[in-house]
Design brief:
Elements lengths: L1 H18 L2 H4 L9 E8 L6 H20 L7 E8 L4 H14 L4 E6 L1 H14 L3 E5 L17 E2 L5 H16 L3 E7 L2 H17 L2 E7 L7 H9 L4 E5 L3 H12 L6 E3 L6 H6 L1 H5 L5 E5 L12 H9 L8 H20 L6 H9 L3 E2 L5 E2 L12 E9 L6 E11 L1 H4 L3
Helix pairs in contact: 1-4, 3-13, 4-5, 6-7, 8-9, 13-14
Length: 411
C-alpha cells in the first residue's frame, strides 16, 4: 500500500505541475528582485547525520559569505533544508514540497542515494537545476544529456567514472595485464564495475571478477580466487564496511598485489580499522581522491584557506563539509556567469555549459555539449600507519597529484 501511495503521490504531483502551468513558467520561480531561493533535503539526524550536518553547514556558510559580499546581481541566496533521514520516500515528499510549495530555483547538494534515486526521473521531467549530488550512482552518468537531463550537474565522481580511473591507475602503476575485481552487487559496486570493464576493454586488460553482497561477512572464497588467479593488481569496488572486509579477506588469503579502492574510503577511520593489515606492509592500499587542499609546495591552497575561514571551526578538517562548500561554489559559479542578465533555468544551464567549472580544491568539471559525468580528474593516495600503541598515526598520504585519465595514461 505504501508503494502505491508513493506512486500516486508522484503522479498527482506531476499532474498538478502540468495543470497549473509550472512546466511553462517555472523557469523564473525562486527568483525575486532581491532573492534567489534554493534548497535540498539531507540526513541531518540519524546514522547519516555526521555526513549531512557538516555538508549542509558548509553550503550555508558559503551562501552567507556570498550574501555578505552583496550577493549575486543584488540578490541574496536563501537556503531551505528538510531532514529526510536518508529515506527515499521522505526525500521525494520534500522534493515535491521544495518545488511546489517553496518554489525553489534549484536544488543544491542533492543528498544521498535513496533520495537521488527516488526523485531522479521526477526532477528530470520538471527540468529544475540540480547542482552537486552527494552520491555517485550510475544514473547520473550521462555524456550526452538532453531535455530536462541538462539541468543535472554532477560534480563529485560518479562510480562509473571512478571505475575507469582506478583501472588507469592500476595500469600506470603496475603495467597490469590482469586485474582482480571484488565488487558489491549494489549501486556502488555495479557502477564502478561498469567503468572498470569499459576501461579494461580499451586497454586490453583481463579481469578476474568476484561478486559479493554488501552484507557478506565471509569473503574468503572470493579473496582466494583472486589470489589464485595471480593478478597484477586488485580493485576493491565497494564502499566503507564491505571494502574493509574485502581488504581483510585479501590479507588473510595471502594477497601481495596492490589494491585500489574508492575515494569514499579515503577516511582516517578506514585505515584505523585496518591498521594491523596496513602496518604489515603485505600489500599497498591506494585510494582515489578528487579534493586537494595543498599547493605544489605542500601548503594549504587558497580554496581550502577560504573554506576554513568561513565554515564553523569544528568542520575545518571535515571532508563532508568540504563537499558541501564545493557544491555551493559550483552553484554560485553559474549565477555569476548569468550576472545581470535574466536568470532562468535555461539561462543558468547555458551558463554552466559555456566553460569548464573550476573546483576550488582541485580539478575542473566540463559540462559542454551535455556532458554530465562529474569529475574525471583524481589524485592517488596511499594508506599509511606509523607509530605504536596510542601514538599510532593513521593517514592517507598524497602519492600522485590530481590528473585526468589521459594524463594518468601519458596520452
Amino acid at each position: 500500500m505504501k508503494k502505491v501511495l508513493l506512486a500516486l503521490t508522484l503522479v498527482v504531483g506531476l499532474f498538478s505541475l502540468s495543470a497549473c502551468g509550472l512546466f511553462d513558467t517555472a523557469e523564473v520561480q525562486g527568483v525575486t528582485d532581491d532573492k534567489i531561493i534554493v534548497g535540498n533535503s539531507a540526513a541531518t539526524s540519524g546514522g547519516f547525520a555526521p555526513v549531512g550536518q557538516p555538508f549542509n553547514a558548509a553550503i550555508q556558510a558559503y551562501f552567507d559569505m556570498v550574501n555578505a559580499e552583496g550577493g549575486i546581481a543584488g540578490r541574496e541566496i536563501e537556503f531551505i533544508h528538510y531532514d529526510d533521514e536518508f529515506d527515499g520516500a521522505q526525500g521525494l515528499t520534500y522534493a515535491e514540497r521544495l518545488l511546489e510549495d517553496d518554489e525553489i530555483f534549484a536544488f543544491v547538494g542533492h543528498f544521498g542515494t535513496p533520495t537521488v534515486g527516488s526523485t531522479y526521473d521526477y526532477l528530470n521531467e520538471v527540468g529544475i537545476p540540480r547542482v552537486y549530488y552527494a552520491t555517485g550512482i550510475s544514473e547520473l552518468f550521462n555524456p550526452e544529456a538532453e531535455g530536462g537531463e541538462r539541468a543535472s550537474f554532477p560534480v563529485q565522481p560518479i562510480y562509473d567514472a571512478e571505475g575507469e580511473v582506478m583501472v588507469a591507475r592500476a595500469f600506470a602503476e603496475t603495467n597490469a595485464t590482469k586485474i582482480g575485481v571484488i565488487y558489491t552487487n549494489a549501486d556502488d559496486g555495479q557502477g564502478m564495475l561498469n567503468g572498470i570493464q569499459l576501461r579494461a576493454s580499451m586497454l586490453g586488460i583481463e579481469l578476474v571478477e568476484q561478486q559479493i553482497s554488501p552484507e557478506a561477512t565471509d569473503i574468503s572464497s572470493q579473496a582466494v580466487s583472486i589470489v589464485d588467479a595471480d593478478v597484477d593488481a586488485v580493485i576493491v569496488a565497494a564502499n566503507q564496511v564491505p571494502a574493509e572486509r574485502i581488504i581483510r579477506a585479501l590479507y588473510d588469503a595471502g594477497n601481495t598485489a596492490p589494491a585500489f579502492t574508492s575515494y569514499v574510503n579515503a577516511a582516517e577511520s578506514f585505515i584505523e580499522n585496518l591498521a594491523d593489515e596496513i602496518a604489515s606492509e603485505q600489500f599497498t592500499i591506494y585510494a582515489s581522491a578528487w579534493v586537494n587542499i595543498f599547493d605544489e609546495e605542500g601548503n594549504f591552497n587558497e580554496g581550502y584557506l577560504k573554506f576554513a575561514e568561513t565554515v564553523p571551526e569544528e568542520y575545518a578538517a571535515n571532508a563532508f563539509a568540504m563537499a558541501g562548500w564545493i557544491a555551493a561554489h559550483f552553484f554560485v559559479e553559474g549565477l555569476r556567469r548569468v550576472g545581470e542578465d535574466t536568470l532562468t533555468w535555461a539561462s543558468y544551464i547555458d551558463a554552466m555549459e559555456e566553460a569548464p567549472v573550476e573546483n576550488p580544491m582541485g580539478g575542473i568539471v566540463d559540462y559542454a555539449g551535455g556532458s554530465r559525468v562529474g569529475t574525471q580528474s583524481m589524485a592517488l593516495l596511499v594508506a599509511t600507519v606509523s607509530g605504536e600503541g596510542d601514538d599510532r598515526i593513521y593517514a592517507w598520504d598524497n602519492y600522485l597529484p590530481i590528473e585526468d585519465i589521459n594524463e594518468i595514461l601519458g596520452n
